[in-house]
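Readers of this paper often ask what the protein records in our data store actually look like. This encoding replaces a full spatial description with a residue-level series of whole-number codes. For reference, a complete record is included directly beneath this paragraph.
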Amino acid sequence: MLENEFKGASQSAVRRTARLRLRPPVEGDADFLTLLFSRPELVAHRPVPRPDAPEESAARLARDIGHWKDHGFGRWAVESGGALIGFGGVTVSKEFHGLNLSYHLQPESWGHGYATELVRESLTFAFDDLQADRVIGLVRTANAASKRILEKCGFIFEREVMLHGAPTNMYATGSFRI
């Protein structure tokens, strides 16, 4: 997939599911993002399982906002009941074929089906609105909950890859070209 294949996508920026409101991230989300990525249970499955420094969270938010500016879509800020609970959606993968699905929700929202709802809406958006042919999800081996969510949403294990210096399982749905 060419990095600029979706440049200028003009889909509605805000989407809704039964319980979630998905909107583009804004600078005002910085404090929430910093708190989110300071949670040890959230960063436990990273190659270096340490919380982000505030500068790292600011850079993460800038990348998400920049992806929206460059491509017309990206990871959404995820709200439930009017409160921000995390971030997630699809982005252009620079390393692998397909759009990359990722999400991070605050631990208090785990186990309520929000991640599954977000993944399903992200897939609807990717395949129906963007006409993507493939979406990948990258999951650390020890992250059994994310593996179950991807499998429940139609992803299949494709192969192990190295990501940021650590073995990572690549799951995919759509066209299974490597």
